[in-house]
Design a protein that fits this description.
The protein has one domain: outer membrane lipoprotein receptor (LolB), chain A. Helix content is 18%, strand content 43%. The protein has helices spanning 2-12, 27-37, 117-124, 132-138, 164-167, and strands at 43-54, 59-72, 75-81, 90-94, 97-102, 107-112, 139-149, 152-161, 172-178, 186-190, 196-206, 223-226.
Length: 229
Amino acid sequence: MNRLFWALTLFAAGALFTAGAAGSDTLPAILARMDQAAPQLHTLTADVAMDTYTAILDDHTIEHGKLTLERSGKELRAILDFSSQSDPRVIAVMGKIVQIYYPNLKLVQEYNFGNQTNLLNQYLLLGFGSSGTELAQNYSISGGSTADIAGRQTAEIILIPKDPQVKQRLKEVDMWIPHDAAYPIQQKFIQPNGDYRQTTYTNVRLNPPIQEPLALKLPPGVKHQSGNQ
């Protein structure tokens, strides 16, 4: 379940990659930009740099991958491809289904959230075109510091989950929003035990053409395994 939790957080940031006009960087102004920009997101691609920190070992794992996202109405399809890493995997969210494919093992784990879609939506409502208003319904939001990240001036916002079930696994999310946009270029997901995952996004393309509906492409002979939520 912990691996699945981290898989979900990988997609939470990309959802807010929607165009926004520059403006005041008060918290209400940032959320208003998100409200205005949310309906404009249909597809997205980005490069991802991910730092996974394990507190008990004081260990950092750095990975690089590519994110592709497609949103139609309330349905979300997204693929995060880490196949170029030494421990390759590809993570896909297809509506209520989350899949994690391990090429070296010729194995795909599938998680069907079914009636637990509220838990899934709590993670995904961090973004994927959701508005600032929707975020405020599910998270207590406060302003943080400013920072220069990847050469861009950003304002930090801090999200604390309201749902007790989500709060058991996710203590806090920090997001850094550029002054001239409505999306984060960096997010940090912090667990109660001190573990965290920090993700930075570059080469972001908003609404690029996608030739066919997103799907996890698997070679013949891959074993399928049902996971536990």
